[in-house]
Amino acid sequence: MTGNLPVPRALAPVLDSLTPEQRRAAMALGYVLVLAGAGTGKTKTLTAGVATRVELHGMVPGQILCVTFTNKAAQEMRKRIGDVLGPYSVPTWLGTFHALAARQLRAEPEVAQLRSGFDIRDAEDSLAIVRRLIRTVPKEKLPVPQEGAPGDARQIKKMAERIARLKEDLITPVAAFAHVESLIRRRQSANLHVDHESWRFVVGLYGRYQAILREQNAADFGDLLMWPTLAMLHDAEYHRRWSARFTAVMADEFQDVNRAQYLWLTLLSRTSGELFCVGDDSQSIYSWRGAKVGFLRNFPHEFPDAKMFKLEENFRSTRHILDASNAVISFDPSRIEKTLFTRRDEGLPIEVLGFSYATEEAAAITREIGRRAATGVAWHDMAIIYRQNRLSRTLEEALLHARIPYEIIGDVGFYQRTAVKDALALLTLCAWPDERRSDEAFRRMANRPPRGLGARGLGKIEMEASAGGLSLCAAATRTRLSPRCAVALQGFVQILRQIGCREGESLGERLTGLLEATGYLDMLRADDSDEAATQRENLAELIELAQGFRRVEHLLEHAALAGGAPGEKGRDRVQLMTMHRSKGLEFRHVFLPAWEEAIFPGAMSRNSEEERRLAYVALTRAMEQATITFCDYRPGGSSRPSRFIDEIPLENRVSSWNHGRNEPRQSDGRWRQVDQELNALGL
């Protein structure tokens, strides 16, 4: 038993820093579920769990699999474990689901009918393939969407998302027809709407999409998990081989796993019987991208011998904030019951402020932010967190008018920015001009900057490539095109081949040469817009990053796996973000605008309980003070306060709105006092 084992000296400080419940959880073996409420130290507990297995039970770090959802979380975990155990005792299998699954698939790519050195297509690449496939279909043969027109951007995105969902559910192209027909029958028998024409179209699209990936020796994000998981399900020897590699499997944010991720984890833990999962069903907010909270909630039933620990002591927020959060989430009948508490003082009640119009709301929030800054609160200690991205515009205008520095978190990630994607495509073409893996890059860059190549010319190149079994880059110089286009493309391909043959250059130098020689940088220099200047800055940063990689494929894989990560937190800026983006963050002061029935939970909301969990997440971001606001009127019509406001106990909130229709509308004398104080300060 663990309790009878002497605690090694290196482990004692780690365990001594834990609460009793955190310590019991970290030291537990077997199937373990740690239900970690917001701000209760889940990362600290998970780190201690890894340290306990290495120091107390002698597990080899290289045989511990530790998985997170984001690169940022993986880096934080790696640092914490390194601080405790030293850099050489950090598990080598520590990373995101996609990064670790990619590593498994690269070891045996044949399970996905791929060859060694396959490429990884990110979400934007996948969307481009789907877009190209749909545009080959006459519009009259496309299913008519519920919103928009056949073949428009929304339909293309929807089709790509459905292919991704099929892969998350481990449905291959071969199995897709039966799966979709079963889905249609179930929904029809339950008298539920089902877009059967679109789903049946997706079945055929999925097969063509997968054929293109296979032809290019490429895998998308869904493939990285689907094929190894299916191989473990259907090949006992493959399963035994991989499951035997790990003495423990540990997972963070378990409430957010989809079917493929859940099965991948449980299959890899089968031999050891060691599965340590940390999560919180009250913070499950990603069902729209495939997460299934039921996997966490059913954990004790799936594994009858499992041990469950509840972390309920919150180290972040004051008592008023926690009482309000507990009250709101208590209306979720399916949750695993827990109640957050704190040893901190009660703090300030939740402010609830009503306004007539969104412009008034934005102006009031802005002035209060200014007042708090004048009293010494740092800009980056304040955040405005909203339900929908579109709500940021009015707030931004108010902040700009007041000259308050701000940053929108969750803008386009670095590796998804246009110039960065273009530069990586040039590197791909330079490295593999004669391989089909470069075809997507050719389609992207053949006419950037313009070389006179239109859809008709590209179609001719596609036909030549198909007839001769060539890459598009190789076929371009053999295709009869207009003289101007032919000369331009000949020069483009020649540049790619010449730079590709250079030896002794670093990756950064090669990239610089490509951008200059192809005219790409000149194109950006000729554009005097702020956007072009930003793109040039992005390229300078990419060139610097490229210096840290020896091979093109390593940089491309890193970019594919890291794509979409949010920017770094601004040190001197108010933070603006959606509720989804705010998860995992904390701020001393949080403003929560637009808590109105029409917006939050919203009249069209498909998952009211997930909206409630979003309210819980938003409230628990606040450390010292939370302010909720709402309006009577927004563009699009009138509304009323969100039901979530009424669920906050009266003793935990102070309201500036009243229910008497005949009484004059006012925001609260406190806000008038704010105006006077700011005017006196000259703000």
Automatic annotation (TrEMBL):
ATP binds at A36, G37, A38, G39, T40, G41, K42, T43. Its EC number is 5.6.2.4. It is an enzyme of class 5 (isomerase). One of its GO terms (biological process) is recombinational repair. The keyword DNA-binding applies. One of its GO terms (molecular function) is 3'-5' DNA helicase activity. CDD domains: DEXQc_UvrD. SUPFAM superfamilies: P-loop containing nucleoside triphosphate hydrolases. Residues 319-584 form the UvrD-like helicase C-terminal domain. Keywords: ATP-binding, DNA-binding, Helicase, Hydrolase, Isomerase, Nucleotide-binding, Plasmid. It comes from the Bacteria. It catalyses: Couples ATP hydrolysis with the unwinding of duplex DNA by translocating in the 3'-5' direction; ATP + H2O = ADP + phosphate + H(+). InterPro entries: DExx_box_DNA_helicase_dom_sf, DNA_helicase_UvrD-like_C, DNA_helicase_UvrD/REP, P-loop_NTPase, UvrD-like_ATP-bd. Residues 15-318 form the UvrD-like helicase ATP-binding domain. The keyword Methyltransferase does not apply. Belongs to the helicase family. UvrD subfamily. This is DNA 3'-5' helicase. The lineage of its organism: Bacteria, Pseudomonadati, Pseudomonadota, Alphaproteobacteria, Acetobacterales.
